[in-house]
Amino acid sequence: MSPLTEKDRPIIQLLLSTGTCPRCVLRFCCVGSQMLYRHPHEELLKDLQKFLRNSHEEEGSVCLDVSNPPCKRLRLEPGEEGASDRNRNGAIPQLPPADDGNAATQSLPGNICNVCLGVLQEFCEAGFVKKVCQKVNSADYQFTSFVFSVSLPPQLSVRERAAWLGVKQQMRNLGLPFPEDDIIQLKEAYKWIIHPQLSEELGVPADGKSLFEVSVVFTHPETDEECHFLATACPDCFKPAKNKQSVFTRMAVIKALEKIKEEDFLKHFPCPPSSPKNHCDALEIQCNNGAVFVAGRYNKYSRNLPQTPWIIDGERKLESSVEELISEHLMAQFKADSFNFSSSGREDVDVRTLGNGRPFAIELVNPHRIHFTTEEMRRLQQAINDSSDKIQVRDLQLVTRSAIGRMKEGEEEKTKTYSALIWTDKAIQREDITFLDDIKELKLDQKTPLRVLHRRPLAVRCRLIHTMRSEYIDEHHFRLHLKTQAGTYIKEFVHGDFGRTKPNIGSLLNRTADILELDVESVDVDWPPTLAD
């Protein structure tokens, strides 16, 4: 329970008389009691009226009566003056006597607040809370907590500034301080009211760190143009931005309000703000679950399968990809909207990935299902493996976003092992290739290969061949096992890429060499953790 003191009387009397709702009155009086805002609108209005009547009768501070049940609804006569008759030059209207009941004439229970445009009235009621919860429940999400976010129309900041200037002038006339920073923000007050109702209805707690977000977007078409004068007064604050339908964003408006002088503001906007005809509209009620990350290792056994969809000039070249064969099962089980695939390096379409496989991670965006047991993940892995003979997945598991960084860190630092089937134009004997086995830490200068120059910048990259081991097959073929620095272009090391990779197998053997087959035998990144079968 937060006390109201005698210095709050002129604020209460002014705001109620100009059409401000009781909860916004509490905000301007810097009342920080969350419980107080949750009391019914009519009860708060009567408590404020009671405070105005009793403020001269008691010394010191007076507390709002928040323990008594709501009393009968007061019969208040509507004011004779309409919103159009209010002063537009910033002058404070003449306040009526505190005990005649007229101070709250404009703040009748059915009237729409001239500051919050009904956000702290209509949208705090049980009916709207049920509407939000029905939307959440119909979306069929798994969640154990929620975070509630609100998007307010930017003109609310303009109206709040107008009301604040009126109160500021009134307090200045009375010789009382009124620090702006102490005003309770509208979003904060709204969440104080709505959080416990949503929590009770949904059966889970509100948590600012929750990954499940329930959001409401409010609009008020009737007053949309109230921000426009700021663009003339402060043009530097309103710059067109990508993905923004209007330059009048909330942050741009706030920036302009901080910049504009009081006298310029009062020339263009009524103070106090006029009462609207309609309350805000809840344009959108949306739910969104934070991304879930799944990691594992994949083996690729096909020489006709790209890692990601192969599309050139809008035309698909092959029917599937590693990414799609894995993700289609995850998307279905997690009921996600979309996904992002990443891996520790990539292999060409005609290269197999053997051994323990290549580490990968998939970000599942806005998943409706997020809880999976170890056994369920094992069955999901088996379903992926049963669906195709082109790939196999192992160590499939849920991971955190931060853990994926370990995969990327090892991408350039770790080593990779390859097996290459090589052809030579001139006949070779076993002794012609044995010297390759003795070469250690061979330094290469690799200019960006011609085959990837369309998507990689032109540069010369220094890479290392740590070790090589040769296997003679016949006069024109041998197999070469290589352990290399990550990022080494193996095909170019074999054929030289028209001299763009130096040295290369062709130059070392003094003959033309080409690569017929390439396999990745290991990717030495110790992630994700190996799981027991």
UniProtKB/TrEMBL annotation:
GO MF annotation, one: RNA binding
Biological processes annotated in GO: tRNA pseudouridine synthesis
The keyword Amino-acid biosynthesis is annotated on this UniProt entry: no
Biased composition (Basic and acidic residues): 76-88
Isomerase recorded as keyword: yes
Domain Pus10 N-terminal eukaryotes: 113-287
EC code: 5.4.99.25
Region of interest called Disordered, as start-end residue ranges on this chain: 76-103
Top-tier EC class: isomerase
Family classification: Belongs to the pseudouridine synthase Pus10 family.
NCBIfam families cross-referenced by the UniProt entry: pseudo_Pus10arc
Catalysed transformations (reactions): uridine(55) in tRNA = pseudouridine(55) in tRNA; uridine(54) in tRNA = pseudouridine(54) in tRNA
Cell location: Cytoplasm; Mitochondrion; Nucleus
Protein name listed in UniProt: tRNA pseudouridine synthase Pus10
Organism: Zosterops hypoxanthus
All residue ranges annotated as the Pus10-like C-terminal domain in the record: 293-524
SUPFAM superfamilies (alphabetical): Pseudouridine synthase (SSF55120)
Gene Ontology CC: mitochondrion; nucleus
Pfam families the UniProt entry points to: Pus10_C, Pus10_N_euk
Keywords: Coiled coil, Cytoplasm, Isomerase, Metal-binding, Mitochondrion, Nucleus, tRNA processing, Zinc
